[in-house]
Specification:
Shape: elongated
Largest sheet: 4 strands, antiparallel
CATH superfamily of the largest domain: Lrp/AsnC effector binding domain/regulation of amino acid metabolism (RAM) domain
Number of helices: 5
Radius of gyration: 20 Å
Order of helices and strands: HHHEHEEHE
Number of domains: 2
Strand content: 15-25%
Strand order of the largest sheet: 2-3-1-4
Helix content: 25-40%
CATH class of the largest domain: Alpha Beta
Structural class: alpha+beta
Length: 161
């Protein structure tokens, strides 16, 4: 998925990553103040991290309920396609309701994280969008009742490992 960075991340890189995970809109001047560098050095490090594929981008996190997308579900899909072919993956990836798409090991082939407005919309999504994909044999859906924790933050290594 991402290209590994050519050189190892140093302590300053990890501090910068922790800060941008906390607040992606934090100005370079504030990051520089917190890590003890000048803003131009922060800019260069951010560019290096982006070029290496460590930083994949910045995006706003919108409350799904504000857009009427209050129902989240996880859908396991069993597809009839050769192992590793991922033929259906591109079709699932085009569906705007699919927030995450994972190729998984086990009885199923794919795990989809889906957001829709309500149970009726989920039924229509499964029937009219997932069910019409030729390779789909079966689905198993788990509806989320309440989200306790949801984050895109990654655990970063501390000093010394």
């Amino acid at each position: 998925m991402g290209t590994p960075i050519a050189t190892p991340l140093d302590d300053i890189d990890l501090q910068i990553l922790a800060l941008v995970q906390e607040d992606g809109r934090m100005p370079n001047t504030e990051i520089a103040r917190r890590v003890g560098l000048v803003p131009s050095a922060i800019f260069q490090r951010l560019q290096k991290l982006a070029k290496a594929g460590v930083l994949r981008g910045f995006e706003a996190r919108i409350d799904p309920s504000a857009l009427g997308l209050g129902l989240m579900a996880f859908v396991l899909v069993k597809a009839d396609e050769p192992v590793g072919s991922l033929e259906s993956a591109s079709e699932f990836a085009r569906l705007p309701e699919v927030q995450e798409l994972h190729y998984v090991a086990g009885d199923d082939c794919y795990l989809l994280k889906v957001r829709v407005s309500d149970a009726g919309a989920l039924g229509r999504f499964l029937r009219d969008k997932v069910g019409v994909i030729e390779a789909v044999q079966a689905t198993r859906t788990t509806v989320v009742l309440e989200t306790i924790k949801e984050t895109g933050r990654l655990p970063l290594p501390h000093d010394g490992g």
